């Protein structure tokens, strides 16, 4: 059936179909889809460069202005073409955009609510800093549910830095950075509407409109509405796919003065009601109802301004604020809380023939307040200074040195350096990087995000988590074959984890029961591995293959020896084949392999099964209308086919479910239409 539909897409006659015209934006993509050149951060725009006839884009996630052949820090890029593909597969959020990138794993943190975080090269998800145009609009330590509340509609690309980026962005970026780069208005008005529906009673409606307001000003707005009905696939009374209603809107304003001054302003609003846990009328093995719900509201705003001081000097200022409110229900426990995040930053940068540099100051603030559990309230104020120097040592050797000093209000002075080297003779590029970073612990490790604060003891005596990360990358371009080979290593000291214990009284003076406390683990967590990426492009065909080897271990005090970190597959791989003619059709096949993983606190098994995820995508364009259909999880993989999701008894941290180690949605089909207006 799937093959028939895809063939139908291709052989259907094209009526009044014309090749799409690329928008005249100050941005573009290039054939090197997972690497890109860099951008001066004060130029909040994408500029074209041409090297040997190949267009490149400038990225915003580094603080230098180098192109791809000169940048010592490797930045992986999900470009606009890939964004369009993934938006058809999952229009409601960005999880699939990053999940299918080599070395990146989207890990479900709450089986009841479906929330997830992003692990870069095996590092814990809380170490990943999620940015939008370089601003922490989702918080300095974004909650896992936030990943599922960001639509991809107005994105131009996604930039990823793996390994410690604390020297650039502070403690929240100890594991790396994912920077969502927005689309910029072109010289003509344009827009699109996307309508999507799934076989599991899910619907998405997203819009994007952009227009110049004058010769110097442009504006855009994206808005969306998303719905998912609750689903219980194995009929055990527990919701396997959380239900939600979500509404989002984000306007953006861009202004460019005659003297090179640029101003960018954005604001965002999101509201969501999410339902999980036991179905109405269903009970847990303990015989009680257990609904798990979360209502969320988020408001944010951000500003970036830049300009020239002299011919060789420029200035940049940025600021952001975020307020997120939650009303949570975890069975009998309820909570109401607020997260706040603020950033103020100012910097000066300059360059000479061989050197580029930047020096800046920043103030970051994170606040959390709970109505029911005030013992966990915290406020982190972190003033800091940072600097970076990029220097061309020889014609084919360059270096980048960056460092940041933070004075954390809770965890004291923190110094985060990073050094990167590039050797690039001809078509070969060799990059080496080493960095140090830190992370300021909060109550919200993955298990607490899933189960709430009711069984957590007040935090006492914690130390900052600290990491050393290193990588060695080889890239080689041979005709139409692009190759990347990376080796990486991370050692983390003081990882925070939960420890079960018995207590006489709960946090809110309820009856005695088992509880958990947060401690710094003894010994190092060691995460070493390698990535291989091959990409071949010939005319209308593109094939990508990737493989990740991961050796992630931690010290277990009870066993007195090292063991694998849970939910860290040693082997994973991916294969994507795409046949595409721009403005006419797109047909794609993807296959992803996930190896076995060690499981923890799972009474049904100690190790997961390996599994394959297969998908098919088809799109046919008729003028401004693009009709698409996507078949996900063709093998109908579902964890509850192997073992129950619900535990026979409630865990010490309060959860009623095992961890998600596989897919839990089974075979699903989504289809819809994308309608484009104006310049494309």
């Amino acid at each position: 059936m799937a093959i028939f539909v895809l063939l139908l897409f291709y052989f259907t006659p094209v009526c009044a179909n014309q090749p799409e015209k690329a928008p005249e934006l100050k941005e573009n993509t290039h054939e090197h889809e997972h690497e890109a050149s860099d951008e001066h951060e004060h130029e909040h725009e994408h500029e074209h460069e041409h090297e040997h006839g190949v267009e490149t884009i400038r990225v915003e996630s580094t603080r230098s202005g180098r192109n791809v052949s000169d940048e010592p820090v490797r930045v992986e890029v999900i470009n606009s073409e890939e964004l369009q593909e993934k938006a058809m597969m999952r229009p409601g959020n960005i999880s699939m955009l990053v999940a299918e990138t080599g070395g990146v794993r989207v890990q479900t943190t709450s089986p009841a609510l479906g929330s997830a975080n992003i692990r870069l090269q095996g590092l814990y998800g809380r170490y990943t800093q999620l940015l939008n145009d370089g601003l922490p609009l989702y918080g300095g330590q974004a909650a896992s549910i936030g990943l599922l509340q960001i639509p991809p509609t107005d994105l131009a690309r996604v930039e990823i830095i793996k390994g410690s980026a604390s020297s650039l962005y502070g403690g929240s970026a100890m594991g790396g950075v994912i920077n969502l780069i927005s689309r910029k208005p072109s010289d003509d008005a344009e827009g699109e509407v996307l309508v999507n529906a799934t076989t599991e009673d899910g619907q998405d409606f997203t819009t994007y409109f952009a227009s110049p307001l004058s010769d110097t000003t442009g504006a855009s707005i994206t808005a969306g509405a998303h719905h998912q009905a609750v689903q219980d696939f194995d009929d055990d009374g527990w919701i396997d796919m959380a239900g939600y209603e979500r509404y989002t809107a984000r306007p953006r304003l861009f202004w460019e003065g005659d003297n090179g001054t640029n101003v960018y302003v954005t604001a965002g609003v999101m509201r969501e009601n999410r339902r999980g846990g036991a179905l109405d009328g269903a009970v847990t093995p303990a015989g009680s109802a257990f609904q798990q719900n979360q209502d969320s509201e988020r408001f944010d705003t951000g500003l970036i301004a830049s300009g020239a001081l002299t011919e060789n000097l420029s200035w940049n200022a940025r600021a952001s604020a975020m307020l997120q409110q939650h009303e949570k229900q975890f069975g009998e426990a309820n909570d109401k809380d607020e997260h706040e995040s603020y950033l103020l930053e100012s910097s000066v940068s300059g360059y000479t023939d061989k050197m580029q540099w930047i020096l800046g100051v920043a103030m970051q603030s994170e606040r959390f307040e709970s109505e029911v559990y005030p013992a966990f309230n915290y406020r982190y104020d972190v003033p800091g200074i940072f600097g970076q120097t990029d220097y061309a040592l020889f014609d084919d050797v360059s270096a980048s040195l960056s460092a940041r000093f933070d004075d954390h209000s809770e965890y004291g002075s923190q110094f985060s350096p990073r050094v990167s080297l590039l050797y690039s003779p001809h078509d070969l590029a060799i990059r080496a990087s080493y960095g140090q970073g830190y992370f300021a612990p909060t109550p919200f490790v993955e298990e607490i995000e899933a189960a709430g604060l009711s069984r957590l003891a007040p935090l006492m005596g914690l130390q900052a988590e600290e990491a050393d990360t290193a990588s060695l990358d080889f890239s080689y371009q041979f005709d139409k074959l692009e190759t990347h080979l990376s080796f990486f290593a991370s050692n983390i000291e003081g990882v925070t984890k939960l420890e079960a214990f018995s207590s006489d009284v709960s946090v809110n003076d309820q009856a005695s029961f088992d509880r958990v406390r947060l401690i710094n683990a003894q010994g190092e967590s060691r995460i070493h591995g390698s990535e291989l990426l091959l990409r071949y492009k010939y005319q209308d065909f593109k094939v990508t293959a990737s493989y990740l080897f991961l050796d992630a271990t931690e010290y277990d005090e009870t066993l007195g020896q090292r063991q694998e970190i849970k939910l860290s597959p040693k082997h994973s791989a991916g294969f994507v084949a795409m046949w595409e003619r721009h403005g006419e059709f797109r047909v794609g096949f993807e296959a992803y392999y996930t190896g076995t993983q060690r499981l923890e606190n799972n009474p049904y098994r100690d190790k997961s099964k390996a599994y394959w995820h297969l998908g098919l995508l088809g799109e046919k364009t008729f003028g401004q209308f693009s009709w698409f259909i996507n078949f996900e999880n063709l093998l109908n993989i579902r964890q509850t086919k192997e073992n129950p999701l619900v535990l026979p008894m409630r865990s010490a941290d309060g959860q009623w479910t095992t961890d998600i180690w596989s897919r839990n949605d089974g075979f699903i089909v989504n289809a819809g239409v994308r309608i484009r207006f104006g310049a494309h």
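The CA atoms of residues 361 and 385 lie 4 Å apart. The mean pLDDT is 87.
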